[in-house]
Amino acid sequence: MPINITMPALSPTMEEGTLSKWLVKEGDQVKSGDVLAEIETDKATMEVEAIDEGTVAKLVVAAGTQGVKVNALIAVLAADGEDVGAAASGAGSAAPAAEPAAKPEAAPAAKAEEQVKADAPAVAPAAPAAPKAAPVSASGNRTFSSPLARRLAKEAGIDLSAVWGSGPHGRVVKSDIEAAVAGGGAKTASAPAATPASAPSASAPKGASDEAVMKLFEAGSYDLVPHDNMRKIIAKRLVESKQTIPHFYVTVDCNLDALMALRAQLNDAAPRKDSAPAYKLSVNDMIIKAMALALRDVPDANVSWTENAMVKHKHVDVGVAVSIPGGLITPIIRKAELKTLSVISNEMKDLGKRAKDRKLKPEEFQGGTTSVSNMGMMGVKEFAAVINPPHSTILAVGAGEQRVIVKNGEMAIATVMSVTLSTDHRSVDGALGAQLLGAFKGYIENPMGMLV
């Protein structure tokens, strides 16, 4: 019988993903362990392997399709000895599960733009709206569409090349075909009937809806860029964090002179390996270590809040914010309090590189007990970061800069860094947060303590 290949759940929180690339084609023979496709989640790109042997009978979801739900059918294999054509024909009924039109954000954006055009003053009321050209490939001979849209268009006798797609990258999706059927033919620009400029919209939105926001701007003065999975997940989690976590902030200034001197000394003493130093410590590496040791020394702050109990962690797993195109990700240094500075440095370089390439495994960026966000290299003096649940703390690090300080009753110049600790006030109150930040400041200003 046919073997169904479905969209895997690559992390506990994954709900949908993008099928970015197929590495096989219909008719290929595959065996267990062969890589079939690359799946892009909100944080990483991962490979999907075959767990059975067979022949690729049908690729149900096209490469590049966004918003594919977990457990949706994406391909069908014909088992050994099974007719490939018969296996492929049995895949059609499951195609709706992979419908990219299920992505909710794309349609409202398109409708919002149409609403703006409908409400714009009519320059020539008698002239009908010009239809939009159907999207085609670079070769000019193919309309991009989802498998379900193609099937519905065929059943309805509609020419796909005359349908304007509202899906990702102009892809024709289910709703476009349904609109074309309802309109008695191929969908054009989806332009509603022109209304006089003085007439209010019959469906004026309430609140800051997409349509209400678009009305504030002149038609044609903007482009709509649909949110990708990463941006949607980041937005969702930040809103949840601010709505559910009572943030409390504590700020201190740290003198970096001793740390900078020790860093230079350690880097100069690094052994050579293949003509390159075995490690090169950064200030951020030492901040990670100092935060881990501070939480080790103040274990009551190394916690996570739940409604029924406090989760008290036995080790300090430090997530480090890394900026990547379209958002950020927090790869985690596990058991950072037990690792040397050189190990932290080399591990962070590897995680940072793979984060930018979107090659991290879920276990490398999920979980953790605290986070560090360093914007000092961008020249930011001071900021407050948003806590990343289930963490109770996050440290926001500003730039180290030369400032005038008072030392032994006299003015002096020192390299000073401002850091702000955001705490979840349910689990880490003000006094405990101050104690934690004091321990961190102690390690930064007396960095030899990190070596013993």
Description:
The chain has helices at 84-89, 106-119, 147-156, 174-182, 210-214, 229-244, 257-268, 283-297, 341-356, 430-445; strands at 3-6, 16-22, 29-30, 35-40, 45-49, 54-59, 65-69, 73-78, 247-255, 272-273, 276-277, 303-305, 310-312, 318-320, 322-324, 327-329, 332-333, 370-374, 393-407, 410-424. With 452 residues, it is an alpha+beta fold. The protein folds into 3 domains: 3-98, Beta Barrel (OB fold (Dihydrolipoamide Acetyltransferase, E2P)); 106-226, no CATH class; 232-451, 2-Layer Sandwich (Chloramphenicol Acetyltransferase), CATH 3.30.559.10. It has a 6-stranded mixed beta sheet. Strands 1-8-6-3 form a 4-stranded antiparallel beta sheet. Strands 5-4-2-7 form a 4-stranded antiparallel beta sheet, with no helix packed on it. Strand 4 (35-40) and strand 5 form a beta hairpin. The relative contact order is 0.10.
Question: In a few lines, what is going on in this structure?
Answer:
The chain has 452 residues and is of the alpha+beta class. The protein has three domains: 3-98, OB fold (Dihydrolipoamide Acetyltransferase, E2P); 106-226, no CATH class; 232-451, Chloramphenicol Acetyltransferase (2-Layer Sandwich).
CATH class of the largest domain: Alpha Beta
Structural class: alpha+beta
CATH superfamily of the largest domain: Chloramphenicol acetyltransferase-like domain
Instruction: Report the CATH topology name of the largest domain.
Output: Chloramphenicol Acetyltransferase
**Named CATH architecture of the largest domain:** 2-Layer Sandwich
What is the CA-atom radius of gyration, in angstroms?
28 Å
N-to-C terminal Cα separation, in Å? Answer: 63 Å
Q: How much strand content do the residues show?
A: 15-25%
Tally of helical segments: 10
The major sheet is characterized as: 6 strands, mixed
Query: pLDDT average, as an integer?
Result: 81
Per DSSP E runs of 2 or more residues, the count of β-strands stands at: 20
Question: How are strands sequenced across the largest beta sheet?
Answer: 9-20-19-18-14-17
Assign an overall shape.
elongated
SSE ordering: EEEEEEEEHHHHHHEHEEHEEEEEEHEEEH
Number of domain modules: 3
Helix % is 25-40%
Low-pLDDT segments: 93-141, 187-207
